[in-house]
Amino acid sequence: MTDKSPAPAPEAADTASGPEQPATAEQGPSGAQEEPRADTGGDEAPAGAAQAESGEQAVDEPARAEAAAAEGAAASAGERGVVKVSPAVYKRLTTGLGGFTLAMGACLLLVLAIFVITPRDNKEVLPTVDYASQLWALRSDAPFTVYAPEGLPARWRPTSSRLHGLDTGGKQPVAWHLGFVTPDGEYAALEESNEKADAYVPRMTNSSKPIGTMLVGGESWAKYHRNDKKANSLARPGPGGMSIVVTGTASYEELAVLAASLKPQPRQGGGPAPSASPTQGS
Predict the structure, then answer these.
(1) Which of 209, 201, 255 minimizes the C-alpha distance to 232?
(2) What percent of the chain has pLDDT over 70?
(3) DSSP class per residue in 232-271
(4) How far, in Å, are 135, 158, 161, 198, 225 from residue 130 at the CA level?
(5) In order of start, what are the domains of the chain with their CATH numbers?
(6) What parts of the sequence cross the membrane (predicted)?
(7) What is the C-alpha separation between 155 and 144, in angstroms, rounded?
(8) Distance of alpha carbon 108 from alpha carbon 131, whole angstroms
(9) What is the distance between the terminal CA atoms of the chain, rounded to a whole angstrom?
(10) Top-confidence residue, 1 or 220
């Protein structure tokens, strides 16, 4: 009988060839394992791409920082109100006539600011004068007995002295003005002349009617006052038809101090000239 059992032979062949397929798939013609190499190459490619990407990020990082700094500067400039100009405009503004004008304007603004913030005293400071030479001339040539202050306290500061008519040879009245700043910071003046009293006294006192009398140094002085000019005055006649007036914005008490200091002066050559500067005193 014919046995057809060889049919399992193909299975055996298949079985024999079946286990060989994995080896064929894993090995190349040279017997080396190529599939793991392919897998390794696949793993290295993403790693290389990652390194390239990180390199690009490192390169872009300074550019991004500069861009961010530029944006921040632009934003801060916009907040400060800074106007961007082209190089040509900048050069025109900082050089030539335009730059000079801007620089001068800045200097003027600085000077104005200093002027505004600097404290100032608006009171006028009058210079101190020495009236010794004019007093000497009066003692020599005046046609009347001259009265001058002696022993005034040092805080009485002489600020003006004027002579009139002394060089006219008697054709005009002679007059002397001597002004002081008082210890209280007020003004007081000695006025004396051989002009007629009815014209001279009202002009010096700014008033034609006395408001009373005041006894100073044993002498009676007529008191005058002018409201609109804040003028107080004391006046009395002197020897030989001359007149003596003390007047100013000072109080009657300070005017009395000046009046009490007036002493008749000897003619030149009759004795030493008195000091024309106030002396220490109370």
Answers:
(1) 255
(2) 60
(3) EEEEEE-GGG-EEEEEESS-HHHHHHHHHTEEE-PPTTSS
(4) 10, 7, 8, 31, 29
(5) 132-264 (3.30.200.100)
(6) 97-117
(7) 29
(8) 44
(9) 174
(10) 220
pLDDT in tens, 200-255: 999 999 998 999 999 998 999 999 999 888 899 999 999 989 999 999 999 999 99
Q: Do residues 231 and 193 make contact, with C-beta atoms less than 8 angstroms apart?
A: no
Strand pairing class (243-248; 147-149): unpaired
Segments in the chain forming alpha helices (H) = 8-17, 20-26, 34-80, 87-94, 96-117, 132-141, 197-205, 252-260
Grouping H, G, I as helix, E, B as strand and the rest as coil, residue 122 is coil
Q: Is 64 helix (H, G, I), strand (E, B) or coil?
A: helix
- pTM of the shown model: 0.56
Nearest to 246 by CA among 274, 224, 277: 224
In one letter, which amino acid is 170?
A: G
Cross-strand bridge partners of residue 180: 158, 188
